[in-house]
Amino acid sequence: MWKIDNTEHEVVAARRQGDRYIVKLDGVDDRGAAEALRGATVVGDQLGALPEGEMWVHELVGCRCVDTTGAELGTVDAVQDNPAHDLLVLDSGVLIPMVFVTNHDAPARVVTVDPPDGLVELYLGA
Q1: Least confident window among 31-35, 48-52, 86-90, 113-117
Q2: pTM of the predicted structure, to 2 decimals
Q3: Which H, E and C letters describe the chain, residue by residue?
């Protein structure tokens, strides 16, 4: 449920168009009604709590990143959107596809990865 200027609307349909989204809201049935919402404040429902030990993607930023041997690879500076898999962007310059994340310890803020041989060295020039 979304609130737009204190009026609740349910999202009926949504699709991406370029760098924007086209969203159909219940009760907004024509272009004039949609145009009337231009500039309105939109508030969505609060996201539910994650299961214990799980993390939202944005919470990975600032986590230490180690490989399966415990070797430090860097700190997660960002998570970059990528068509195949999102990438962990480490402060060391290493990019690691999320598919290689094997574990995360939310309380300790540590992400463990198991990248293929040579991936880390590729970025570090070793």
Answers
A1: 48-52
A2: 0.60
A3: CEEECCEEECEEEEEEECCEEEEEECCCCCHHHHHHCCCCCEEECCCCCCCCCCCCHHHHCCCEEEECCCCEEEEEEEEECCCCCCEEEECCCCEEEHHHEEEEECCCCEEEECCCCCHHHHHHCC
